[in-house]
Amino acid sequence: MTQLRIQATFVVDVWDGVDDEKVDGGPVTARVELAKTYTEGDVLGTATGHMATTQGPGGAAYVAQERVTGTMGGRTGTFVLEHRATQVGSGEPVTWAGIVPGSGTGELAGVSGEGSLGHGTLDLTVEFP
User: Fold this and answer.
1) Cα 4 to the chain's mean position, in Å?
2) How far apart are CA 125 and CA 4, in angstroms?
3) Residue 97 pLDDT exceeds 90
């Protein structure tokens, strides 16, 4: 196994959100279709995916999955990245990102890893077979 730290930046190209039915006194929930371009660093390519969000006066959270197509660490293929964040009040968000087991294709087959995803940044520790 080869272990690498992967860092990359991305831009969000599509953010198409639809609010769910409102619940009196409940937080706003929504579904989002997204597309990204990974522009610099150890991941270069594009991604498309879906996200579920919740936002209310006491906090916010999201969970998402996106299929990344391109190169990671110089290897070409695809993988599915899952990521989420939770924020309580105005505090700092707690984030997590990980590669869905078994989702890698091409030269990325068998890749695994986890780390964090922030506003425009990805930071993972990955293992290649």
Assistant:
1) 18
2) 6
3) yes
Distances (CA, A) of 84 to 42, 46, 114, 116, 129: 21, 19, 12, 9, 26
pTM to 2 decimal places? 0.94
Over the chain, what HEC string results? CEEEEEEEEEEEEEEEEEECCCCCCCCEEEEEEEEEEEEEECEEEEEEEEEEEEEECCEEEEEEEEEEEEEECCEEEEEEEEEEEEEECCCCCEEEEEECCCCCCHHHCCCEEEEEEECCEEEEEEEEC
Q: Which domains does the chain have, with CATH numbers?
A: 2-128 (2.40.350.10)
Residue type present at position 58: G
Task: Tell me the average pLDDT of the chain.
Answer: 96
Nearest Cα residue to 43 out of 123, 102, 128, 129: 123
Can you read off the two tokens belonging to residue 35? 């597309």
